[in-house]
């Protein structure tokens, strides 16, 4: 049983001549294992900023609020400590790392997160099976991490990592964008396998309702202007599908 | 910096076997301005060759090895010294090593020349000539180690249709100074791969160059270096495309760490009027791991014909990318390990291309040792 608790989180970026810009303006959110939450919102509303702030990206400055995982202060942890504590961020734009192979990277990550190096044979088998389940060509194991991967391939690899690292709480930032229907199904199945595996919670960030046909959230939060402006159940996603974000953009801007 | 207004091609015009044809450098000359002359131990001022660098050769059975005197007519035919230290080395060596790969022979294993310095206190000079006869193939390793103040010239004569792969490993002790010219002259359809790995030494200045005698020549020049505090590692490349339809690729990558670690990379490529159909690309990248380092990276491309297949260059120097580190850390990998993975990956892309297993593993281990510092 895990709980990620975000309270009144305020985040700024940039400290150039124009000063720091506040992007998150008081976010409250609780994700427990067994739950799937969807955060939906217009471009630029701060969804990725929330994801990065949880993961600890150095560019984002936390100016107020708290984030805890099972009561532990996440904001006091380094990026890698957060991952080892059980947080995972599938990135909207996975980073290309030249010369670091997928298999070497996965093995290092698995070793770090599990606290001991898996036997090479066992690991190779596990990786193969996980790649197979996501229809990833085995050749990718030897390629440089994300280098030259298509948008869809990058997203599959994020889910591959999710399935191998088995975090407590996963934040998936627009994992659906750039996927065709087949890939969307494959990726959704991966997310559902992860969700069904037990004590895990999912925070799914998306711009579109399309993925919610495959990954069913119990909670839907509308994000606008750097905060959650409305919350509801799956039916809220239907409303957004039909009406768009327009009224929230205005509400977000005026508050 | 004021001086270099002349075209590249004229900078490399001067060559001579006679030391007196080159004035003692002052440090203001284009070709010396990055090199700390004070640390050359008078190699540029006629330091007497009282020291010794022992040469041991472990040759493939197909390769003929000879130690010859100065008067051997095969010496100095492919390369005429282009600067004062090179001319000094040519004037002062007493014995040279000549390796010959006979026509159409394919060497069954690498030929290793170990150049062992025993004392950096006095200067030593050397000369090596490698002749790969038409359609022969060989791999040669020049392994430099120990303590030395050493200047030498190395000539590679690659015959028509022949293939030569060379790895020059500078694994010197911290007190060594090494200046070397390594010139490859390629016949028709010849191919040459020159790998330079510079790790140890107080001051190392390697000048690999390539000239083509006939069309179809293909040269790949790779370099990997790791510069520590106080070290000066300099690589000066010259590829002279003076005949049509030849190809060259240059990729040098280095990492720097520690106070006054200084990397210099000069990449001169000339495509002369006769060099129609030339295909060339050169790249230098430097990864700066700490404060206090200095990088001078200067690609120069002079094109004197309109008819090229491709001609490009790039140079980039910078710190580790925060986004790379973030991504690895976000998967639980501790920062220091993430840093190692990124550096290893960056240099590894070249190191993986070293064909001689033993050398490749040695270089990998050396990089790990550097990262442990
Ligand atoms: N590093 C940064 N420097 C300056 N501004 C930034 C930075 N990162 C984000 N922003 C700004 O913060 C706001 C929120 O960006 P964010 O990426 O969090 O939005 P998003 O909701 O994820 O959008 P999208 O749907 O396009 O992914 C935007 O106005 C963006 O321009
Ligand atoms: Mg986003």
From TrEMBL, chain A:
CDD domains: ABC_FeS_Assembly. PANTHER family: ABC TRANSPORTER I FAMILY MEMBER 6, CHLOROPLASTIC. Residues 4-249 form the ABC transporter domain. The keyword Nucleotide-binding applies. The keyword Lipid metabolism does not apply. This is Fe-S cluster assembly ATP-binding protein. Keywords: ATP-binding, Nucleotide-binding. Pfam families: ABC_tran.
From TrEMBL, chain B:
InterPro entries: Fe-S_cluster_assembly_SufBD, SUF_FeS_clus_asmbl_SufBD_core, SUF_FeS_clus_asmbl_SufBD_sf, SUF_FeS_clus_asmbl_SufD. GO terms for biological process: iron-sulfur cluster assembly. It comes from the Bacteria. Residues 117-345 form the SUF system FeS cluster assembly SufBD core domain. NCBIfam families: sufD. Belongs to the iron-sulfur cluster assembly SufBD family. PANTHER family: PROTEIN ABCI7, CHLOROPLASTIC (PTHR43575). This is Fe-S cluster assembly protein SufD. It comes from Thermomonospora echinospora.
């Amino acid at each position: 049983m895990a709980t990620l608790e975000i309270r009144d989180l305020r985040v700024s970026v940039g400290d150039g001549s124009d000063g720091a810009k506040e992007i998150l303006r008081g976010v409250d959110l609780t994700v427990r294992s067994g739950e799937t939450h969807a955060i939906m919102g217009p471009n630029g509303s701060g969804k990725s900023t929330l994801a990065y702030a949880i993961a600890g990206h150095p560019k984002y400055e936390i100016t107020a609020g708290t984030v805890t995982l099972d009561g532990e202060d996440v904001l006091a942890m380094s990026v890698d400590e957060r991952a080892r504590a059980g947080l995972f961020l599938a990135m909207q734009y996975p980073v290309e790392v030249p010369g670091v192979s997928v298999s070497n990277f996965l093995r290092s990550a698995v070793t770090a997160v599990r606290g001991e190096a898996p036997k090479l044979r066992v690991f190779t088998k596990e990786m193969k099976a996980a790649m197979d389940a996501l229809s990833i060509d085995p050749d990718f194991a030897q390629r440089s991490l994300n280098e030259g991967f298509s948008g869809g391939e990058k997203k599959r690899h994020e889910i591959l990592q999710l399935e191998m690292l088995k975090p407590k709480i996963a934040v998936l930032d627009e994992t659906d964008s750039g996927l065709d229907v087949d890939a969307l199904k494959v990726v959704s199945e991966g997310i559902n396998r992860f969700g069904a595996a037990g004590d895990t919670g999912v925070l799914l960030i998306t711009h579109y309702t399309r993925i919610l046909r495959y990954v069913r959230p119990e909670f839907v939060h509308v994000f606008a202007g750097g905060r959650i402006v409305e919350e509801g159940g799956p039916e809220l996603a239907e409303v957004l599908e039909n009406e768009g974000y327009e009224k929230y953009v205005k509400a977000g801007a005026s508050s | 910096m004021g001086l270099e207004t002349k075209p590249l091609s004229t900078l490399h015009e001067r060559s001579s076997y006679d030391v007196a044809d080159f004035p003692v450098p002052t440090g203001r000359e284009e070709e010396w301005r990055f090199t700390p002359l004070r640390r050359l131990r008078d190699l540029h001022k006629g330091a007497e060759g009282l020291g010794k660098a022992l040469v041991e050769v472990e040759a493939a059975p197909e390769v003929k090895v000879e130690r010859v005197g100065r008067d051997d007519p095969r010496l100095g035919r492919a390369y005429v010294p282009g600067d004062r230290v090179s001319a000094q080395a040519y004037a002062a060596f007493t014995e040279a090593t000549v390796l010959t790969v006979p026509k159409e022979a394919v060497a069954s294993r690498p030929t290793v020349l170990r150049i062992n310095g025993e004392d950096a206190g006095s200067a030593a000079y050397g000369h090596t000539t490698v002749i790969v006869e038409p359609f022969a193939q060989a791999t040669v390793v020049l392994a430099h180690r120990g303590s030395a103040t050493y200047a030498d010239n190395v000539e590679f004569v690659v015959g028509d249709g022949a293939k030569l792969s060379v790895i020059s490993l500078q694994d010197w002790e911290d007190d060594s100074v090494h200046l070397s010219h390594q010139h490859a002259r390629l016949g028709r359809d010849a191919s040459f791969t020159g790998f330079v790995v510079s790790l140890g030494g107080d001051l190392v200045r390697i000048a690999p160059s390539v000239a083509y005698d006939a069309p179809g020549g293909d040269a790949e020049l790779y370099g990997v270096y790791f510069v520590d505090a106080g070290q000066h590692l300099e690589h000066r490349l010259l590829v002279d495309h003076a005949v049509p339809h030849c190809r060259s690729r240059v990729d040098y990558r280095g990492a720097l760490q520690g106070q006054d670690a200084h990397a210099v990379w000069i990449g001169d490529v000339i495509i002369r009027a006769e060099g129609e159909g030339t295909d060339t690309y050169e790249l230098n990248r430097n990864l700066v791991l700490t404060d206090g380092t200095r990088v001078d990276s200067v690609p120069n491309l002079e094109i004197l014909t309109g008819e090229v297949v491709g001609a490009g260059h790039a140079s980039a120097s910078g710190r580790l990318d925060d986004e790379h580190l973030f991504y690895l850390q976000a998967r639980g990998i501790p920062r220091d390990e993430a840093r190692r993975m990124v550096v290893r990956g960056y240099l590894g892309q070249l190191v993986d291309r070293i064909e001689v297993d033993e050398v490749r593993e040695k270089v990998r281990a050396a990089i790990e040792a550097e990262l442990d510092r």
